[in-house]
Amino acid sequence: MNKQHLFLFTPGTWLGEGTIQLSMLQEPLSFFMRWRVRGADEEGVIEGTQEIQIKGHSDLMVNHFWISSMQPGVFSLFLENHAIGKLQGSGFVKESMIGWEFRSSDVEGFEYYDKKEEEAYLVHAEFATSEQLRTVLRGKIWKSCLPKEKELL
User: Fold this and answer.
1) In this predicted structure, what is the pLDDT of residue 152?
2) Among residues 18, 97, 12, 86, which one has the least CA distance to residue 48?
3) pLDDT tens-digit series, residues 79-92
4) How many domains does the chain have?
5) Residue range of the domain that includes 126
6) Would you say 140 and 123 are in contact if contact means Cβ atoms under 8 Å apart?
7) Is residue 81 in a domain?
8) Is residue 88 part of a domain?
9) Mind listing the pLDDT tens digit for each residue in 5-52?
10) DSSP labels for 116-146?
11) Contact 2/9 with Cβ under 8 angstroms?
12) Which residues does 36 contact at the CB level (< 8 Å), separation at least 6?
């Protein structure tokens, strides 16, 4: 377990919001985010689910993450979603930041979580596809204090 960060390394739910800019649209769109993180299993693998919903749209983008091979300051990360399939990436942990990047023939990008408080992070992510479609996401997340049945997305 990482003692510097609650996010990703402690079971729980994190909520967020921000803007998402898609290369095919002029104006940025508002989004809502929810992370659900489970504790490490017996092999030390941490599983998480990231859900992103663009304001005014019913579609939900769901990313499943598995964090493994934890070493001081680095880890391996696997991502799976229905649009891009499975990706493997590498991650890092610094005193005030957690991040990872992916590189494949179809998609490359990064996602950074900059710690501002014990239970709050700024988020910056950028992804590009081989078709030159680009997505930029900026926002913030915070640890949810709501019971699971009260959380909405």
Assistant:
1) 52
2) 12
3) 998 888 889 999 99
4) 1
5) 12-143
6) yes
7) yes
8) yes
9) 899 989 999 999 999 998 888 899 999 999 999 989 999 999 999 999
10) EETTEEEEEEEEEETT--EEEEEEEEEE--S
11) yes
12) 13, 48, 49, 51
